[in-house]
Specification:
The complex is a heterodimer of chains A (110) and B (681). Chain A has 110 residues and is an alpha/beta fold. Chain A has 3 helices and 5 strands. Classes of the chains: A alpha/beta (110), B alpha/beta (681). Chain A: GO terms for molecular function: anti-sigma factor antagonist activity.
């Protein structure tokens, strides 16, 4: 799994992951969120468009990231999940917690 | 073929036991109650009914108890983390376990999970070349959740697909993973439990430590209903199942907590708007704004908005309002804030399991009851909302896959996994050997803890009411909990003969013949059922302890009730793994069993009184004979505590020749154990 970090505007970080977000790669997502928040970019978007598979550990990393961001007064949002990811969100009821925004650009418009 | 025939015999015994037992108990309730002495008559028949239900649950367990075929060999390349949990056990003991764990043949990563964060433990881990994990700074000032917290912390720091959990004293065999991992080809399988046996137990097992009946026929029986329990150690878990459990629990608890907090905030604000200070137009506007925000958030969630989006928007809105208000009346605010801080401090007891959602209810109730100024109400609403935000700020980590509702996290966790539709396996082959308590005091502490934990689960998540479980699964979990209520029945079984011998009052209104015609067939078939079900493992030591430890079981139910309902702490104690009986001044700890000594003395006095009454012609001969026999039975039961109190610990028979005697590999030894819970009594 690879990821890139964009900073489209003040205080916002967009993390783009590609590949599988699972128990092996989840720690890297957690670290990436931590790094952004520490650097003052407390509004974090995780762009999932390149993520082909997510498991419960991946979801766990998103929840951990949400906690990190909220405690710094920011937020963590997810964008552009594929079908498999949507299904997992649904099965675990995580769709009750995270709004899946259509794209990373629009995640913090609201 | 032999197995089939044995199963047939067992089922015939089950049916006979239930028919004769129901016949007996129905006759006792309907035709033989001595209503003149209803207080003892009803108590006795209730105790007997309790015992019949216990037998019925045991019968259901045994109905499908069979050996599993061996699993396929595991595929290569699976990733496994081996967790050794420790808190205060001697470093040498943990190191011995860690060394054996490192030597497990299937490729894996070994970790010591040191809740004591001891530098010498870290050094030992480094010397062995195994991983070492402690709690991070996030856990400071937050509930630690004992062993469940330790495991949850480690889960977030490791990445193996499967986990092998070992207590600090459970030394694994090198083949433990080769023999078990293959089961996981079944994608729905979450848990594999293997037996727990102890290498430091003398023949005769004075403290009733071994549980060959539980780690054998009973777990096999539960397995037959897909309800084999997680028993805390010597078990393998699928990480995906645990994480999924953590996530679904997180979502459920968040929905509940956010809903309740919003409803509570609504009440607090409604009250504040009626108070005097609300006449100030500025304050009135602020209160209205926040009220609107809360009501709109509730509506949005009801219409499908996500918790994340809704709570974020709400925080922003309320944050803006209170920003404007800060300057208005700092003095008033400061007073209220002190009150709020007190409330929060009071609700944040570090060892209260599961601070959600009860804490929110309490905080809401406390806030709503107070005369807060409108500003204070605003501030307190904000504090309330902060405390239930989706980040679970009151917990070290938002996900707690291992259940934290009980001091016995294992049972609660497997029940929740079963509730999500995951399956479990009981693998009946000894693959690790541990150390049992070697003195009465430690043993009693351990049993109390297990019983309390089991009662906490019953009170917090009654298995009979869990929707995800099948009916047999519900009954399998309930069966274990039911057996811990035996203390009350035991008390009645001790008191009833005293009442007859001293007062001449018989609780049963019947002739001796009628009684024995119904009672004896039931009793005999019941005992035969035990013999068949247990493969000849004696159940006697277990039966003795289940009655003789009645004060422990009663105390467990009352303290667990006080804990769950009134939030009284349990005085949780970690079971010491080192011997407590060394030293020249040692005396048997009779004070630990003083209630049982008093009962034994009263039984003896009652016998003297009864025989005197018989000699004087007041007593009735058959009744006296039956009750004296009953007293002898009771005393035989209680006598198990004499060698237990005098026990000074394990001395290996082949003592000094071999420093590390190879533990017995056959799990069906001649030691006795009761058919109850994981660690059993």
């Amino acid at each position: 799994m690879q990821f890139t970090v964009d900073t489209p505007s003040e205080g916002i970080a967009v993390l783009r992951f590609t590949g599988r977000l699972n128990m092996v790669t989840a720690p890297r997502l957690r670290e990436a969120v931590g790094t952004s928040v520490t650097a003052g970019r407390t509004r974090v978007v995780v762009d999932l468009s390149g993520v082909e598979f997510i498991d419960s550990s991946g979801l766990g990393a998103l929840i951990n990231g949400l906690k990190t961001a909220r405690q710094a007064g920011g937020d963590l949002r997810i964008a552009a999940p594929n079908e498999q990811v949507r299904l997992v969100l649904q099965l675990t009821n995580m769709e009750r917690v995270f709004t899946a925004y259509a794209s990373a650009d629009t995640a913090f418009d609201v | 073929m032999r197995a089939t025939r044995r199963m047939l015999l067992l089922r015939i015994m089950v049916i006979l036991t239930m028919l004769l037992g129901t016949n007996y108990i129905a006759w006792r309730w309907l035709f033989s109650l001595n209503w003149d002495a209803w207080w003892i008559a009803v108590a006795l028949v209730a105790a007997e009914t309790y015992s019949l239900i216990d037998v019925a649950l045991f019968s259901l367990t045994m109905w499908r108890a069979t050996d599993r075929p061996a699993p396929p060999a595991p595929a290569p390349g699976l990733t496994v983390d081996v967790f050794i949990t420790t808190y205060n056990e001697p470093v040498a003991m943990v190191a011995r376990t860690a060394e054996a764990a490192r030597g497990i043949r299937y490729p894996h990563q070994t970790w010591i999970l040191d809740d004591g964060a001891r530098p010498e433990m870290a050094e030992a881990a480094a010397a062995l070349g195994v991983g070492y994990l402690t709690r991070g700074p996030d856990w400071a000032d937050r509930p630690r959740h004992a062993k469940a917290g330790n495991l949850n912390n480690a889960l977030m720091q490791t990445e193996g697909e499967f986990l092998l959990i070992l207590d600090a004293d459970q030394v694994p065999y090198a083949e433990i993973l080769d023999r078990t991992l293959g089961y996981f080809v079944e994608p729905t399988l979450a848990l594999i439990q293997t037996p727990q046996q102890f290498g430091n137990v003398e023949p005769g097992d004075p403290l009733g430590s071994q549980a060959p009946l539980f780690y054998g026929p009973i777990q096999q029986g539960k397995d037959g209903w897909n309800a084999a329990f997680f028993c805390g150690s010597n078990a393998l878990l699928r990480r995906e199942a645990l994480m999924q459990l953590g996530i679904t629990r997180y979502v459920t608890e968040m929905e509940r907590a956010v809903g309740r907090a919003l409803a509570g905030a609504h009440r607090v604000l409604a009250r504040a708007r009626r108070t005097e200070g609300a006449g100030d137009p500025f304050v009135r506007a602020a209160l209205a704004e926040v009220s609107d925000a809360i009501d709109e958030t509730r509506a949005a969630i009801a219409h499908g908005a996500t918790l994340g989006a809704a709570t974020y928007a709400l925080q922003q809105r309320i944050g803006a309002v209170s920003h404007e208000l800060v300057a208005v009346d700092l003095h008033l605010l400061a007073l209220d804030l002190a009150v709020i801080a007190d409330l929060q401090a009071a609700s944040g007891q570090p060892d209260a399991p599961s601070p959600l959602p009860q804490d929110i209810d309490q905080t809401v109730a406390a806030l709503a009851a107070r005369e807060l100024s409108p500003l204070g109400a605003l501030e307190s609403v904000q504090a309330l909302l902060r405390s239930i935000d989706v980040d679970r700020a009151h917990e070290a980590q938002p996900l707690m896959p291992l259940a934290t509702i009980s001091v016995t996290e294992d049972m609660a966790t497997s029940m929740r996994l079963h509730g999500l539709g995951w399956t479990s396996v009981y693998h009946n082959e000894l693959l690790a050997v541990g150390l049992a308590p070697e003195d009465l005091g430690t043993m009693l502490t351990q049993r109390l803890r297990w019983a309390q934990g089991t009662m906490q689960v019953l009170l917090r998540e009654n298995p009979l009411l869990q929707r995800g479980l099948s009916v047999p699964q519900r009954l399998m979990y309930f069966s274990t909990m039911w057996s811990y209520l035996s203390g009350y029945a035991a008390l009645v079984y001790f008191i009833a003969p005293m009442v007859f011998l001293c007062l001449g009052i018989l609780p049963v209104d019947s002739t001796a013949l009628e009684f024995f015609l119904r009672f004896l067939p039931f009793m005999i078939v019941n005992q035969l059922l035990f013999v068949v079900a247990s493969h000849g493992i004696s159940t006697w030591r277990g039966q003795q302890y289940s009655l003789a430890l009645f004060p422990v079981w009663i105390r467990a139910t009352t303290t667990a009730l006080a804990n769950v309902v009134f939030r009284v702490p349990l005085d949780f104690a970690v079971t010491p793994k080192t011997r407590q009986t060394d030293g020249p001044g040692w005396r048997p700890p009779w004070h630990l069993v003083r209630l049982q000594i008093i009962v034994a003395a009263l039984l003896l006095i009652a016998t003297v009184v009864g025989i005197t009454r018989l000699v004087l012609g007041i007593g009735e001969p058959i009744g006296t004979a039956v009750n004296v026999a009953w007293v002898i039975f009771d005393l035989t039961i209680l006598s198990v505590l004499v060698p237990a109190a005098r026990y000074r610990g394990f001395e290996p028979a082949a003592a000094r020749s071999e420093p590390e005697p190879e533990p017995e590999r056959d799990i069906e030894t001649d030691t006795d154990k009761d058919p109850r819970s994981c660690n059993s009594q």
